[in-house]
Amino acid sequence: MRILAVDDDAVFLMLLQHVLGSLGYRELVCVNSGAEALALLREPDHGFDCVLLDIEMPVMNGIELCRRIRNMPAHKDLPIVMITAMTSIDYVEPAFRAGANDYVHKPINQLEMNTRLGMVSVLVEERLRRLLLETRLSTDFGLPTLNVRFEDPISLTEAGSVVDWLALENYALTLGRLRLSGHDVIAFRVTNALAIFGATDSIGYIDTMANVASVLDNALRSGNHLIAFAGEGDFVAMIDHAAGLDPEMLQDTIELAMDRYKQVHSGLGIPLPQITVGRPTRAGLFNRTSVSRLFHDARQNARDKVTIK
Q: Does the keyword section mention Phosphoprotein (predicted)?
C-alpha cells in the first residue's frame, strides 16, 4: 500500500517510517500539515491507499482534515486511520463522525499497527475489486454503473451521524468494556430491502438506503449516536444509554417520516421501505460479550421481531 502520514512532529514521523518499514510498508509519504496533505491529495498523480492522521496539529487538526478529505469526491472511500497521544474518549466519536475508519494511540504498538493496516488492506482490495468491475461494466455498456451486492455494508455517509460499518465496529472496540456498557445498541431492519434491491439498479438502491439512513439519523437526534448500514437491509446504531430509547415511539416517528417519500417511490416504481425497530441491547459490565456478538444480537432481535409480526 502507498500510505500518506500527516503529523507535525518530525521525530514521530521518523519513528513511524521505521515501524511501518519493519512491517513491510515502505511506500510512505510524510507531511507536516493538513494543507500539505490536501495539496498532495488534489494531485491525480499521487494515488494513496491509506492516510494516517494525527489529531493534534496546529492550524488544521486531524479531525477537520479528515472531514475535508471525505468531502473530496475522489477520496470519499479512502481508508483513514487517526493516530493520537490523547487518551480522552471525547476525541474518538468526533473522529469517526468526520469519516475515520479506525483509531490507534501513540506510542505506536507494532502489533496493533500491523493489525490495523491488515484491516485497511482488506478495504483497499475490496475497493479495487469494485473499481475494476465498475470500469468494466461502464466500458461494456457505455453507462456509469455501480456494482453492489445485497449483503454489502455499503457506505452511506450523507447523514451527519452515519458512518461506515467497519468504522462503527472500530468505534465500539475503542470504548472498552466500561464505556461500552453505557451505550445501547439497536438495529433497524428494512423488511422489504430485497424487493427494493430487485426493483431498481445499484444507484437507486444506494439512494433509497441513504434516505432511510437520514430518517433514522433524524429519529435518533435526541441522543448522541452513531449509525451504520450493515447490509441485507440492516442498520445498527449505538446511542448513549442515558437517552432512554423508546422503540415504539421510534417506530411511529420513523413511519411518519418515511411517508414523505411515498409519492416519490410510487412514481419510480420502487417499494417504500418498511422499517422494523428492534429492542435495544447493551453489553453487561461484567460479562464477556464481544462487539461482534453485541451487534449480531441486535440485528437478530430486529429480525425476530419481523418474524413475530
A: yes
